[in-house]
Amino acid sequence: MEVINKRRSIRAYKDTKVQKEKIERLLRAAMQAPSSYNQQEWEFLVVENKDTLKKLEGMSSYSKPVGDAPLAIIVCANKDSMKSAECWEQDLGAVTQNILLEAVELGLGGLWLACAPVEERMNYVKEMFYLPKSILPYSVVAIGYPLEEPKFVDRYNESKVHYEKW
Fold first, then answer.
1. What is the distance between the alpha carbons of residues 118 and 107, in angstroms, rounded to a whole number?
2. Contact 143/71 with Cβ under 8 angstroms?
3. Domains and CATH numbers, the chain
4. How far apart are CA 126 and CA 165, in angstroms?
5. Are the C-beta atoms of residues 101 and 74 closer than 8 Å to each other?
6. pLDDT per residue over 48-86, tens digit each?
7. From residue 83, how far is each of 20, 77, 106, 131 by CA, in Å?
8. CA 153, CA 70: separation in Å to the nearest integer?
9. What is the distance between the alpha carbons of residues 63 and 76, in angstroms, rounded to a whole number?
């Protein structure tokens, strides 16, 4: 629970590059996610170029933090790898969460910026990175060393839990 409790949406980062070994660990964690039919339809685009990260801010009005991050991982689905197109968004949600949790484990912080299912955002990423037709961008995860230590917030709410019936 410690990693889960420490995870927060980080929007401000130190100007420190994320080491290659840590990037690989983030990607390894991502690929350990469950997937429907074990289709593992994920693909990843790793972005470290400052100018490219700044341009990625234009994806949505909420995307400014990605321009200040030293790293972004764009989580995508490959339609050609899908045995079924029904659950790709759930699969990539698990992938994205794994990245965020491993980031905490590595002393990093991250911010999940939704891309899918918003067509405008998906098209922005597709065009910006010249994605092939078979690739669907799902999320942009901004990653870096947090500028400030995030504080724990207990979100448990007993009134949201129902037993046996509503």
1. 31
2. yes
3. 2-160 (3.40.109.10)
4. 44
5. no
6. 999 999 999 999 999 999 999 999 999 999 999 888 888
7. 32, 12, 33, 21
8. 26
9. 17
